[in-house]
Amino acid sequence: MGWEIVSDLMSSLEEWLKGKLADGIVGCLQSTCDTLSNTFSSDNKGMMKMFLKDRPEEFTGVTSGGTPIWSGIETITNNAIVPIAMFVLVVVLLYELIQMVISGNNFREFDMGIFFKWSVKALCGILLISNVFYIATNVFLFGSSAVNEGLSTLFSGSFFTSGDPHLSGTLRSKLITLEVGTLLILLLLACLIAIVAFVVLGAIIVVLSSRMIEIFMYLSISPIPMATMMNNDWGQIGKNWLRNILALAFQGFFIVVALTIFRVILSNVITQMASIGTGSTVTSGAITGSMAILLGYVIALIFTIFRSSQISKSVFSAQ
């Protein structure tokens, strides 16, 4: 009789421990889902909204209030860089004029129309230098629009709600059927996934912060590349500058795409774990393998986010 009581007590303790471990695993997965979902939701007004949605002219470095950095960069550029850009433009235009004059078979086919063409190029060069910030603003407007649409379309809802049966119901009930040792391993993996998910957020903040700083650096020197656009030989400087601006504008969109891919993978892995059969060694191995694969996907997401700048630049052929 005494052994039966002890056996029942041990069984109860084991079931209680399994329940707690299963709750811990589900809680870690739910925390990962909720953290990513709340951070990138379309109505989020916090840090990620500032880095992903704000255009450079709106960026202040804080979540609310503050003075836009754009105005300071524009003042520095107008005072220090525009005079240099005008000098570069004069050199480029003189070089262009010489090329146009001597290209007519060593003056034998001299055409007065070249001066009209040269005047048009000079006017276009002055207009580009004078309106470079408006040009950059509209370029980033395209990128911000793509990011906003991506966040609104793909992250309008949460990854999983707290009452989702895949997490709180089906998956938990199947986890309880596993051995305590297996549950401990799964809890460790789930905790690692939750920790790495926070590392993902940190990586995104680092990448997007570096992106904003790089944007302002490109903008600060923008009149000089624009001054070279009117010449075929020097124009590659300005064209490469524009390609880099486009790459920076759409880098945030590539991060949203990476997060969207991970969202689908996360959903699929959790659904797969919830659909695995119960009460066999195959079940424990399959669930453990799925959890390990999910951890690998989270780590891969970090590397992808750090490579988002390289991916964006390769798309736009920026150097």
Salient structural properties:
single chain, about 0% strand, mainly alpha
Task: Give the helix/strand layout.
Blueprint: H1 2-39, H2 47-52, H3 69-102, H4 113-130, H5 132-154, H6 165-175, H7 180-220, H8 223-227, H9 235-275, H10 281-306, H11 308-315
Helix pairs in contact: 1-6, 1-7, 3-4, 5-9, 6-9, 7-9, 7-10, 9-10, 9-11
> What is the overall shape?
elongated
Number of domains: 1
Helix content: over 70%
How are helices and strands ordered from N to C? Answer: HHHHHHHHHHH
How far apart are the first and last residues' alpha carbons, in Å? 80 Å
Compute the average pLDDT: 78
Contiguous runs where pLDDT drops below 50 for at least 5 residues: none
Q: Biggest β-sheet: count, sense, barrel?
A: none
3D structure, described in words:
The chain has 319 residues and is mainly α. It has one domain (20-73, 132-315). Helix content is 79%, strand content 0%. The chain contains eleven helices and no strands. It has helices at residues 2-39, 47-52, 69-102, 113-130, 132-154, 165-175, 180-220, 223-227, 235-275, 281-306, 308-315. Helix 1 packs antiparallel against helix 6 and helix 5 runs parallel beside helix 9 (235-275). The longest helix has 41 residues, at 180-220. It is elongated. The termini are far apart.
